[in-house]
Structure formats: C-alpha cells, structure tokens
Amino acid sequence: MKEISQAVIRRMPRYYRYLGELIDSGVERISSSDLSARMNVTASQIRQDLNNFGGFGQQGYGYNVKNLFEEIGKILGLNEKHNIIIVGAGNLGQALANYIEFEKFGFLITALFDINPDLKQQRVRGIPVYMSEELDAFAQKNRVDIAALTIPKSKADTIANHLVDLGIPAIWNFANVDLELSDKNVMVENVHLSDSLMQLSYNIVKNKKEMQTGRSNV
Amino acid sequence: MKEISQAVIRRMPRYYRYLGELIDSGVERISSSDLSARMNVTASQIRQDLNNFGGFGQQGYGYNVKNLFEEIGKILGLNEKHNIIIVGAGNLGQALANYIEFEKFGFLITALFDINPDLKQQRVRGIPVYMSEELDAFAQKNRVDIAALTIPKSKADTIANHLVDLGIPAIWNFANVDLELSDKNVMVENVHLSDSLMQLSYNIVKNKKEMQTGRSNV
Fold first, then answer.
1. Each residue of B188-211: pLDDT tens digit?
2. Strands of chain B, DSSP E
3. Quick one: closest CA in A to B92, which residue?
4. Which of B1, B96, B189 is facing A210, going by the closest CB pair?
5. How far apart, in Å, are the Cα atoms of B167 and each of A89, B62, B107, B133, B142?
6. What pTM, to 2 d.p., does this model score?
7. What pLDDT digit, counting tens, does each position of A130-185 carry?
8. B62-117, pLDDT tens digit by residue?
9. Residues in chain B within 8 Å Cβ distance of A200
10. pLDDT, tens only, A34-83
11. Residue A99 forms contact with B (CB below 8 Å)
C-alpha cells in the first residue's frame, strides 16, 4: 500500500464534511475550482490530494459529489463499524459518550469505564458505565476497536499499555501527554486540548502585535 | 514580524510540554540530540524550529531547560492571562469548565452561557452559568479574550458572528464546521473531534491491511 502523508490524511475528513454538506444542499456535481473556493484551499491542492487515492474527477466534468463522498468515506474506513470504549467516565468521557454525531460515521460507543464507585451501574445516554476491574472481561468478550483515553496524564501510560496488552488496536488519547506504548503497531490519535489553546494564544498575541504596528485593517 | 508557519507553531506547545516535564524531573540542561530522542523528532528539526525565534542554545552547551521553557511560554503568549467564556454549557462545555489544567497556563474560564433555563444560576466548578441574553452585557463589562464554542454546528456561524460583533478577538471552535466569519482578523482554532476520529479510523484500516499483507511484525 502506498504511503500517504498524514498531512493529506488530516485533510480528508474535511473534504468528507464539505461533500456531506453539498449532498445535504442537493448539489450533485462540483468542479475542483468551486470546491476549492468553498473550502479555501487551491484547486491544485484538491486534485493533488485526491490523486493520492487514484483521483475521482473527469477533466471538464468535475466531481460526482455523492460518489466522491462515498469513496472518501471508504478511504477513511467509515464503511466499517468501529466499537469505542471510553476509559475515564469523568466530564470529558461523559461528554464524548453524549455526542451522537459519532454514530452517524459508524463509531459506536459501547461502554465507559471508571474507578469512581459513585458511577457504578450508571448509564450515559443508555451506555453502561463499568468499574475498571470489569475492563479485562469486557475486552475479552466484546470487540473493541478504539479506546478513548479521558484520564489524567499521570495514569495515562500505565492504563494505555494495559489496553494494548488487552489487544485493543487503537487509542484516541485525550490525556495531555504523548503516550509511550510497548507495541508500536497500536494506532494513537491525540487530542491535546491545552496545545490547541496555546496555538490560539500564540495567534492572538501575534495578531495584537500586528494591529499595533498597523499591518491590520482595523 | 516574521511570518512563522502554523506547522512550526503547532509543534511549540509540545516543546513546552516536554520542557515542563524535564523541569519537574530536575533536568537543568539538555542537548538538542537528547531532547530529540525524547520527543521523537530529529535534532535538526528542533534547531530549525527554535531558530525561527532566534535560537536559544549555545553550540556544545545545549539548552538551559528553564530558560527555554520560559522563552517558549512567552512566544506562546502564556505570560499573559487569557479570559475565556464558554458558549454552550452542555456536556462538552461543562467538561472544559471542569478542566483545571488550563489555569496553570494562564487561561481562566470566567463564565458559561446557555439557552437551557434549567442551567440558570447554576455553577460549574464555581464558574457561573448565564443565560444567552446576558451575553452582550457580560462582554461589555468584562474582558473576554477567547470564546469557546461548544454548540451544535447548525447555530455555530450565527453565534460566532455575534461574538465577533461583540469584539471578542478569538474563537476556540468545537462545532463540527469551519466557521465563516465577517471579520477575518478574528483568530479561530478548531477542535474537530469527528475529523480526529476519522483520521484514527483511516490509520486502523491501513494498519489492518498492512498486517494482512505481512508488512507488520505481528
């Protein structure tokens, strides 16, 4: 399989999102230049990105929106169902469990796990919360494709490696640390909220300086 | 001010995080090659990234950890306080309000806003929840540096533009849509959870295929 850069992959969900919106508004066909204007990327970038997967347009005819949407869905693995467990049923874990959008894309949250006895036998949007000691048995009985890790960073490495030992092939990591895993085949996707906030803060400060030096139109 | 690519900026919080951990473990000085081994990026990448800001190491002496940590903090604007309001006090909004780590970096959540009357006069970790109609008065009386947008995507553009009209200079967008704002000087940082999950799913499917074709060591 040809190696495609993660920068390209990172853009694919955005294409998928925009194509979904086009379908919702009844658009059947779109040129790469129209798509480019909507998405605020160059038409050549779009063609290059899609060419990584064989390309889907015919010169002069543009893209068939529904077809392209489905093909990108397949590329992203959205034609398969993915079972997710959430490890850490605190505020963030419960927020994820409550987020129904994920199901639309084939991501099904099947259970939450926590150490807090107050959460025992609770449910979040009908999804059961189990105690941590029930995790091993659950993972042996049920297919788990992704574990979302919504726990403090101090425990993240230990628990993540335990999930790896249980054979869980992918971790969606919300702990504010880069996991060090024993098995390099396990896929990790990080959501580092503090990093994201710092990037915003950099841009705020930079923008303020530019306004002071008169580069802005304000 | 020299334009620095967002790819470089995206890596800076990670340097900051690693340097913070080094300080916590009592390390005072580190070579770019040691830092590179820990962070799993090349030493030349580290030097290049930091050279964007003038460079902070002396050849052969490595970096002074505390000094570099503070300098990167300044670059990221963490020497200033940032007041955040959360617009949308549902599960995700409350999860953000409960997250105390942000305060450590100077991000202070000052209020939540929602349309749900059940939340009227509630507090989340002591932070007041106000009704949406109180937003304008609040923003006029209090400095707001960042609005976190944790609302459904159908309302995101309208509400975001209202926040822009109120003079709020930055939006931390959790709605699953790219905002179309009337003022291009407003900074936007997106946290698209579905996109992140799709990227993970792409890598899972790719990994599975590679294992089947025997490229993996499993």
1. 999 999 999 999 999 999 888 888
2. 29-30, 63-64, 82-87, 107-114, 123-124, 127-131, 146-149, 170-173, 187-190
3. A95
4. B1
5. 36, 43, 19, 17, 11
6. 0.91
7. 999 999 999 999 999 999 999 999 999 999 999 999 999 999 999 999 999 999 88
8. 899 999 999 999 999 999 999 999 999 999 999 999 998 899 999 999 999 999 99
9. 146, 170, 172, 187, 189
10. 999 999 889 899 989 988 888 777 667 889 999 999 999 999 999 999 99
11. yes
Buried b (16+ CB within 10 A) or exposed e, A9-34: bebbbbbbbbbebbeeeeeeebebee
Beta strands B63-64 and B146-149 are unpaired
List CB contacts (< 8 A) between B13 and chain A.
192, 194-196, 198-199
Whole-number Å distance between alpha carbons of A7 and A115 = 37
Residue A86 contacts B where some CB pair is shorter than 8 Å = no
Instruction: Look up the ipTM and state it.
Output: 0.91
What's at A95, amino acid-wise? A
Token output for A174:
């919300």
Q: Which of residues 1-60 of A touch B (CB under 8 A)?
A: 1, 6, 9-10, 12-14, 16-17, 39-40
Judged by CB atoms closer than 8 Å, whether chains meet at A197 and B209 is answered as: no
Q: Determine the average pLDDT of the residues in B46-59.
A: 82
Q: Which residues pair with A86 in a beta bridge?
A: A112, A148
Chain B positions touching A218 (Cβ under 8 A) are 185
What mean pLDDT is predicted for residues A189-199?
Answer: 95
Q: What are phi and psi of B6, to 5 degrees?
A: -65, -25
Count of A-B CB contacts under 8 Å: 202
Cβ atoms A13, A76 nearer than 8 A:
yes
pLDDT at site A2:
64
C-beta atoms of B199 and A9 within 8 A:
yes
Q: Which residues of B touch A35 (CB under 8 A)?
A: none
Distance from CA of B59 to the nearest CA of A (A): 28
Q: B85: number of CA atoms within 13 Å, CB side? A: 28
